[in-house]
Amino acid sequence: MTLSEAFLWPGTKVCEHLGVDPEGEAGLIRWMVNTLVYLIISLAVVWIVVA
Questions:
Q1: Which UniProt keyword terms apply here (predicted)?
Q2: How many CA atoms lie within 13 A of 17 on its CB side?
Q3: I want to staple 20 with a disulfide (CB 3.0 to 4.6 A). Which of 12, 15, 40, 46 is the partner?
């Protein structure tokens, strides 16, 4: 597994669960899921550091 595959893993798994090809046109679903996952993680880290 490469580093880029590791970063894209959450969205890829969601696409596989939905039966969608993550490499095709529905790659926007993978992008959206990855964005939400890493947004939540980064906000949690910022909240922990600031608090």
A1: Membrane, Transmembrane, Transmembrane helix
A2: 9
A3: 15
Quick check: 44 pLDDT over 90?
Answer: yes
Is the distance from CB of 15 to CB of 21 less than 8 angstroms? Answer: yes
This prediction's pTM = 0.81
Instruction: Report which residue type is found at 51.
Output: A
Contact present, 30 and 14 (Cβ < 8 Å):
yes
Which secondary structure element, helix H or strand E, spans residue 21, and what is its range? none
As given in the structure block, the two tokens for residue 24 are 């095709």
Distance, C-alpha 27 to centroid of its chain: 11
Would you say the C-alpha torsion 39, 8, 30, 19 has a positive or negative sign?
negative
